[in-house]
Amino acid sequence: MTALDTTILDAVGRHLFLGFNGTTPDGDLRARLRFFRPGGLVLFRRNIESEAQLRDLVAAVSAWALEELKRPLLWAIDEEGGTVQRLRAIHGSMPSALELASRGPSEVERVADETAGRLRRLGISINFAPVLDVVEDPDRHFLGTRALGSDPEEVGELGARWIRAQQALGVLAVAKHFPGLGPAGLDPHDHLPVLKGVSRKEMTRQLLPFRRAVEAGVAGVMTSHAVYECWDEQWPGTLSSVINRGILREQLGFQGVLFSDDLDMEAIRGRYEPETLVRQTLLATVDALLVCQHEEGAEPLLRALHDAVRRHADLRDAHRKSLERQDSALALCFDIAP
Q1: Is the residue at 101 inside a domain?
Q2: Considering the domain boundaries, does residue 54 fall inside one?
Q3: Catalytic residue positions, numbered
Q4: Which domain holds residue 276?
Q5: Alpha-carbon dihedral of residues 46, 49, 52, 58, nearest 10 degrees?
Q6: pLDDT tens string for the chain (338 positions)?
Q7: In the 8-state DSSP scheme, what is residue 143?
């Protein structure tokens, strides 16, 4: 096994955004952070007991990271409202995206602003929202009420308002799931969706909300784990240079931080060797790799990142450009104080 260079580890660890267990900044969590040196942590309900507890956790770990890692640690969460609301125990129920859309643009802006304010006060830097998938029938689609609607123009307009309101308070918005899960019949949490027979024309329609998000200055985008055969028959969106570098970066002009969806989802988990995941995501300009549910999956990725950057000039260059994009994002979200 290749000896690990700690200087390289400190840099490549920034590509990892990790889930974790527990509600306190205990020794196990600090040891995990010291080893992986991640770019950020992702919060789930399992980490949240009360507002005071969460604020103390974020503040203590953030202070430790500045001392130990010599750089800020990003905190991320899925706070969409409706069925995906990690802070329900603290703030109570929030309306779903579909319900907000039915109330009109001003309500979308108001709730996005209110949510961002709450996240700021907790010290959370990133909200994985809004969902910009175009869903025709929420009663039958696995995304249900998480989507803003079935009209791409309306989804794009409401999504842009959400993004601007959230980022005005310094909380990085992440539009998802690029290039759109609306035509997918299977949930990537449980299966690998393969979109057969979905035309480029239809997918161009699905792209419209993401185009509006980029125009609105969205700082983050999250990938989709589905296979879009009209563009790339081999790789799911998360691993596709055609989709992420070619369409998102070059065609739509997105220059921000690109997050993978959780690599622990069944659409991806166990299907690819860590070396393949790392090579494909770096070449596809994915900046942050989410490993949220299975702690054992992070170390093989860290080692693969280390070896990729050490051995391959093209991956080292992709890594360098990725860190530059991450550094630019810090200017948006690190005026936050708990």
Answers
A1: yes
A2: yes
A3: 189, 261
A4: 6-333
A5: -10
A6: 456 788 899 999 999 999 999 999 999 999 999 999 999 999 999 999 999 999 999 999 999 999 999 999 999 999 999 999 999 999 899 999 999 999 999 999 999 999 999 999 999 999 999 999 999 999 999 999 999 999 999 999 999 999 999 999 999 999 999 999 999 999 999 999 999 999 999 999 999 999 999 999 999 999 999 999 999 999 999 999 999 999 999 999 999 999 999 999 999 999 999 999 999 999 999 999 999 999 889 999 999 999 999 999 999 999 999 999 998 877 776 553 33
A7: T
Diameter of the chain measured on Cα atoms: 57
Does 302 map to a domain? Answer: yes
State the total domains in the chain.
Answer: 1
Query: How large is the angle between the packed helices 105-122 and 152-167, nearest 10 degrees?
Result: 40
Q: Give the separation between CA 161 and CA 4, rounded to whole angstroms.
A: 45
Name the DSSP letter for residue 150: S
What token pair was written down for 96? 């779903």
The distance in angstroms from the start CA to the end CA of the chain is 41
100: closest CA among 155, 151, 46, 52? Answer: 155
Q: What is the CATH number of the domain that holds 123?
A: 3.20.20.300
Domain annotation covers residue 338: no
